[in-house]
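Example complex used in Figure S2.
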Amino acid sequence: MKQLSDLDDLKHVYDVAVVGGGPSGMAAAAAAAAHDLEVIVLDENPDVGGQIYRGLRTSPLDRRRILGSTYTGGDDLIREFAQTRSDYLPGAVVWMASRSLELGVSKSRRSRIIKSRRIILATGAFERAFPIPGWTLPGVLTVGAAQGLLKSSGVAPLGRFVLAGTGPLLWLFASQILSSGHAPVAILDTTRRSRQLWASTALPGFLTSEYFPAAIKLIRHVSANIPVIRGVTMLAAEGRSSVSRVSYRRAGRPPQSIDVDHLLLHQGVVPNAQLPIAAGCAIRWNDRQACWQPVIDQWGETSIESIAIAGDGAGILGAESASRSGRLCGLNAACKLGRIDTSGRDSAAAPIRRELARFARGRRFVDTAFLPDRAFRVASADTLACRCEEIRGRQITELLDAHGAIGPNQLKSFLRCGMGSCQGRQCALTVTEMIAAHRGVSPAAVGSYRLRFPIKPITVAEVASLPQEPCDRRAVERI
Amino acid sequence: MFVRIADGESERVVVLIDGTPFEGCQGDSIATVLLLTGKIGCRRSFVSGEPRGPYCMMGVCFECLVKVDGIDGLQACMIPIRSGMRIETSIDQP
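Predicted assembly (573 residues):
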């Protein structure tokens, strides 16, 4: 891997441009570069690893003891990527990926457009919004945020803190922070209680999967050392300039509260699909995970020719699956660009597909068990659905009452909902689900926000500094 | 407030946070050093003026916007600190 330091080091054209340096991006780049393709990996972060292996090369912690083997398991992939001939530009924000296979890249307040023959989007996942009263108070962070601080900088919450929500990451972080010697005061567990699940056909797959023994170990470690308050059905963060208390309720019991310095929220992750959605890739609603995901085929190909998606960006399957799907995308790129024939591609893919099948085992159970309760996926009357423009649940339901069958894009016009700095990343799912429930239809029928480039803010000066062709000038010059 | 529990042998980097020098470590983001100094709120909402601070730490939520070396509206969680960097929050700390 050749690490570039700025935009001027980029070639004008690459065979394969990979967006994202997490497990899927590194694996895709390694597979493509192994077939002599010119590859660039563009990553927004300062180092490779994505979120799951964040800071793996530089972490100041006793990595294995505190962060565990799921973290240090990324060492081999990072080493493999480092040995490839791929170009790699860290700190690079990709704000556009077009149908014509152009990428808009920004770094250090400058932008460039580069071209590629194939694009592999490996943009991973981000944490699902958790709209509860007070979730915008300083001191309320996501569990993923706290985990990132621990991994990359060896930094932990000081004082009293509570973890609230559901999902594997919450339990993993609880175990890691416990091992670091900084235990939370409590875990407020919002996991739904479902007797049907434990009697369902999803159970055997889980019991025989690799997730089961790991989950048992985690839950034992955490439950033995941290008070776990189960069956939480209501949560609220309270405080003036920052969070000072979290109140909660359990079914059939009076409300209770805990004084805190920090509240860490988590209820699963969802695909980060801003780039493919803005590019116009077809998406579908995933009922089991209650989120949108781009439509892809068995090689990660989207509905747009030559744009593929690797890893969690096309549906949450976890890091082990992400690297395998990245390899498939890389192999397919090598095939489409004439480096290998289809039979070479297919035979190389066969063992990878067997591994993917192994890692898929048990996911149905995990998805179902940790799907956050609907009450936590929509905004109640006084709760902010859109953090940026401060649009509350009541404003959305009142608008729906008044105007009937409107969609997410009309909400923008009426309320500015989803039009703030985060460009709908935090409220898109909330809004889709609220509209669907109000209209009594599936979220698939409601659709999502139309997204437009740039998907991350860039300055007008950056746009003005883009290299210009004569035709660009002629388009705006007076005759 | 957050605390550093391990620093390995990271190189020290001194930045100015609202004019006050602070020693962080190589690899820390601006948002990380804000949390370490107790500035868990770093700006006010454009709409209501309510305090806001780092939330996602991965460039998604746009809550941790600060002014860096005179340029406003930058995502503190996505920018590694550099020696001599001038970081300005836009909120009075309690």
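Chain B has a mean pLDDT of 95. Chain B has one domain: 13-88.
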